[in-house]
Each structure stands twice: as C-alpha cells, then as structure tokens.
C-alpha cells in the first residue's frame, strides 16, 4: 500500500465510472495531485489539474511526475458514430494515453475493458477491447491491471435505450454476468491501485463486485 503522496493521471473523469472515481481520488489523503484532461471543465479542487480540450491534442502537453494512471475511456459504436470512430477511441486513444502515462513515469496502469474482451472474437466490440488489452500488454508495463466489468449500472448523462432495458435483467444474472454499479467499480479500481504487484492482472466483474463492496 502506498504511503507517499501519489500523482495520478486520469482519463475519462466525466464518464459514469470516472465521476465516482474522481471523487474518491480527490478525497484520498495519499493523493497529492490528479491530472485529469477532459473535454469540458471539472469543478475546481486544490489537488486537481484539469487541462480542457481534446485528449489526443492534450497528451503531448501533459507533464509529470505520474505514479499511477487510470483509463476510464469508453464509448459505444452508436455513440462514436461508426466502427472506425469507436476503434479510434476504445483502442487507439487508450493506447496513446497509456504510452504517454508511461513516458511521464507511471508504473501502474489501471484500465477499464469489458466483459467478453477477446482479440479473436467475432463480435466487433469484444474484438476491439481484446486487441486493446493485447496491445497494452505489449507496452511493457511494470504493473498493468485490466478490469472487465459487466453492464455498468447508474445514472448516465446520455440516454442509452439498450442499457436501460437490459439493466433490470442484469441485476439478477449469475457470477460475472451480473451488472455492476459504477460506484462499486470505482471503489474496486482504487483498491486495486493500492495493491502492489507486477505483470498483468485481469479482474472479472464478479471479483470487482467483491472488491468494491
């Protein structure tokens, strides 16, 4: 567990899970700074640095030091507008963020992937997530934590009909297929960040629910 003040680089702070995780990070006495680039301004905080703009344009401007990086970037094909645009966010931008975090000194990357991620999947969404995971493992991280939540439960700013219809059912499915609250996922991510280790660890949704209780 970290005892010295931590410097955090954080992508996706305005998303469903990101909002909860940001609140947690800013309330932790061991966190000295959260560097969170976003497209729209965040509420000011003494420990928060918030460059505003497109992440792809901001990445070269970000400065360290960074100890730990969280990547909560994620979209849907419908939200992105096309398969190519989805891949540009959920694969290319994630990898670019991770690479910049590594350049700034981060030794531990925690990234949200998805249930069913598999680079050989016939499902485009799952295949892109699996290819993203595979590419991150090739970056040579001292410590890499990949989490694979099931359907995220919580109040989103944007309306997603499919998720709204599926949410009641997902609360009752067994094991890793059961939906997970964004607040629970955020707590699990922070607890995983405090764990010392090496190499790559993949954490499935049922494990995340237990960690985030």
UniProtKB/TrEMBL annotation:
Protein name: NAD(P)H-binding protein
InterPro entries listed in its UniProt record: Him1/Fmp52, NAD(P)-bd_dom_sf
Organism ancestry: Bacteria, Pseudomonadati, Pseudomonadota, Gammaproteobacteria, Pseudomonadales
CDD domains registered for this protein in UniProt: CC3_like_SDR_a
Cross-referenced Pfam families: HIM1 (PF08732)
Stored Gene3D superfamilies: NAD(P)-binding Rossmann-like Domain
SUPFAM superfamilies the UniProt entry points to: NAD(P)-binding Rossmann-fold domains
PANTHER family found in the cross-reference section: OXIDOREDUCTASE HTATIP2
Signal peptide: none
């Amino acid at each position: 567990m970290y005892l010295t003040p931590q410097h955090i680089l954080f992508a996706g702070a305005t998303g469903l899970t990101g909002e909860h995780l940001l609140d947690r990070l800013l309330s932790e006495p061991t966190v000295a700074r959260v560097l969170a680039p976003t497209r729209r301004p965040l509420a000011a905080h003494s420990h928060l640095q918030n460059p505003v703009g497109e992440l792809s344009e901001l990445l070269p401007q970000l400065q360290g030091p960074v100890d730990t990086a969280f990547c909560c970037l994620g979209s849907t094909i419908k939200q992105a507008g096309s398969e190519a645009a989805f891949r540009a966010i959920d694969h290319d931008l994630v990898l670019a963020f991770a690479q910049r975090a590594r350049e700034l000194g981060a030794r531990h990357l925690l990234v949200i992937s998805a249930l069913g991620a598999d680079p050989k999947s016939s499902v485009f969404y799952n295949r892109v997530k699996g290819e993203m995971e595979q590419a991150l493992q090739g970056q040579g991280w001292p410590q890499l934590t990949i989490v694979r939540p099931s359907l995220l439960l919580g109040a989103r700013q944007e309306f997603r009909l499919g998720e709204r219809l599926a949410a009641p059912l997902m609360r009752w499915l067994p094991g890793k297929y059961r939906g997970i609250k964004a607040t629970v996922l955020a707590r699990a991510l922070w607890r995983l960040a405090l764990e010392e280790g090496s190499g790559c660890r993949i954490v499935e949704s049922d494990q995340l629910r237990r960690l985030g209780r």
